[in-house]
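Entry:
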Amino acid sequence: MNTNTQRIVVDELGRLPQFSHAARAGDLLFVSGTLGTTEGFTLAEGIAAQTAQTLHNMGRILAADGAGWDDVAKVDVFIADMRDAPAMNEAYSAFFADVMPPARITVGDCDLALGALVEMDCVALRPAGRPERRAHRTLPSRRSITVEHDGEELFVEIVGEEHRDRATPLVLSHGAGGSHAVWYQQIAHFATDRMVVAWDHRGFGRSTDRADASGPLVAVGDLLAICDELELERADLVGQSMGGWTTIGAVLARPRLARSVVMADTLGGFTSDAIRAALGGGRGATPWDGGTLGLHPALDPSLAERDPGRAHLYQLLGAFGSIDTATVIERILAVDHDAQEAQAITCPVLCVVGDLDPLFPPAAIRAVADLLPDARVCEIPGSGHSPYFEDADLWNAVVGRFLDTLDTLDARSS
């Protein structure tokens, strides 16, 4: 084989034996036709999920040779049915929401391997000498600790370990409908190359709330105490709904902690005339009703129809703990941050929102992003208030794309 040509295979990513995942010739990287397969070489369900999974798989192939999506010059898209093009484009656009996408061609009405709905390949330029990322990944470590703070015991799960040669740690703060366990689809995904920290707010999951004080005013100090216990000086912070109030409060209290912030279906406490107008005069509060299997205000009703078991799981995950949800919601909505505080958050911010979110609709999230110095918005199609749970493949791909871009910038500046 020509020594200037290198074959690339990602061991844990399925492939047919007739070809490698990619080949590099000089500085050019050619990624083979890639499908939206998950573990066991099984195709994701539906055109949107397959599109997101395909892009995610291609990202893993690029990373195995030290490249990223910023290095991609052109993508070729093949779809089995051209009538799926609008849905494919919507999922594709969501993945590239924070950047200008690469050049592309789309070919329709194709017979694809395994009966796939979509297949893609791409060509990238990988500058010689860039450090290569590990193609082989082992299962990450897992441990849990209890952090004592302010008379309470806070449950924390840590998956993966922090090392200098690994990516920035990721800290996940859940919403009022969950606990640390609700992030199970994100923890397994992101912990392969970075430390992931998930914790229970007071009164949720396995954390205590002896003082009956659960809410943003105490949660900010709790999150900072957890970061101190783990000696995290810098992290990527993710806040879902209620967790957005916690995350934003922590960044305002300790700006250097956040390399970036992901605001997931949350206002984070920010208010403005535009936000209030987008909410129709309300603040997104709604009563919790678990009287029907799979139905929850934090989920779009369609999830209960297409995947009742997983929708029921969401109900169950939100039922653990001692919290009175209505009381906590009142405490959440009582916390406001103004435009001046928003200007103090100078790190990159990704605002992710389900396009069907009835609590904090996309227009309100875009109004929040308008207040922030460095923010972009991504809508997850077909999802309600919890796209990280409803469409984890696309949510993970979008957030992963955002984090990968930051990793690349860090590597180039070091």
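The first helix runs from residue 47 to 64.
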